Amino acid sequence: MNNRLRLAIALVLSSSGSAHAITDEEGTSGIQFNFSNPGARSLSMGGAFVALADDATAAYANPAGLVQLTRREFSAEGRYYRYSTPYLRDLSFADGGNFFEPNYQLSHDTSDSSARGVSFLSAVFPFEAATVAFYRHEQMDFNTRFDFISDDFALFPFSSRIKLSDVSYGTSVGFVIGERLRLGAGIAWHEFEIDSATTRDVGGGAVTRQSQKGKDHGFGYTLGLRYLLSDRLAFGAVYRRSPRLYYDVVASDDFETPGQQVAWLRKRSDFDIPDVMGVGLSYRVNDALTLSLDVNRVLYSQLTHNISSAFAAEGDDQNSDGDLSQLKLRDGTEIRFGGEYVFFELPVPVSLRAGVWRDPEHTLHYRDKNLEDANALVFSARTGDQTHYTFGLGLAFEQFSVDFGADFSKYYDTFSLAAVARF
What we know:
Number of domains: 1
Distance between the termini: 69 Å
CATH topology: Porin
Shape: elongated
CATH superfamily: Outer membrane protein transport protein (OMPP1/FadL/TodX)
CATH class: Mainly Beta
Pfam family, one: Toluene_X
CATH architecture: Beta Barrel
GO molecular function: long-chain fatty acid transporting porin activity
Family: Belongs to the OmpP1/FadL family.
Structural class: mainly beta
Number of strands: 16
Strand content: over 45%
Signal peptide: 1-21
Keywords: Cell outer membrane, Membrane, Signal, Transmembrane, Transmembrane beta strand
């Protein structure tokens, strides 16, 4: 019987009101993010851009593609994110179930939230020996909140909220090596912030609180390659290494002084932004039509490699409230495909774009079906693998272009508007 269940039973027996069992830090169960490349053009082509990489966003997507830019470019992109986050809303005892022999009926819901802002800025400068770019990229901008309310003893009612962001500032350079080979590299400074809190009413007027909060920074780097297999077919490859960033975990309660939270646990935890490895092909069918295919391996397992309990101090048994290995993520493979058709005959050339890509499930969920563990209940909501459908269009003037892109999936929509000026 775990520590939180013992506490729950003690509270049930000692309190005249109803009580519910305590659980792990629930806000983590709602985190959503992906690693799509910046740019409205790339977004509308399913994010398949590793081999194409022929605009200012190559500074992040694949620095080897920068050498295709022959004029100075300044670009800006704004994005609007719409999230629908699944979570555990309620639970009850199914037929034959009771507090000591649980058989739960789970009810899930979704929490809607959104975020918006300037997601990408860049400046590209071509020189005779190399092309250099500077950029700012907002890789993560997520927030959500949700509440759990139940009349059963399995979990105490709680309210959770979380905000997560990562902004990187980087510089990249691309080189021409011989007739067909292009190489690139970049370095980026990441600024990370997390602010998560869960509060729960444990009965008798008492309140407990768990929080994950902090800011940290660190360096990451990108290596890129682009090889011209023919005049129309190109191969690309990229490896992106991101830093491990740290924050504080605090658990507190007001058992001794009602209304005043007293911390009983403080420790450090980390958020290891997953590395990404990708390869791609880009084929120009003719002057108007281009097709691109990317396959990316995202090392999501890095996020949970050192997972620990928000209810256990350093050195204590981190699995006392459930087997944390059941929450560990697995690496995932993204498959992205997109195309672009340009109507050159129009007074202002118009580009139509569309794409599709597979997003492997990477929300934290408990893999074991044993619902006796609190974590198995809180982390029972799942998104499954998602299929994203994308589309967009662009207008290309002589010295600037404007692009719009949209990405739709069941739980995560993105809208993008970008502009590029060339001199």
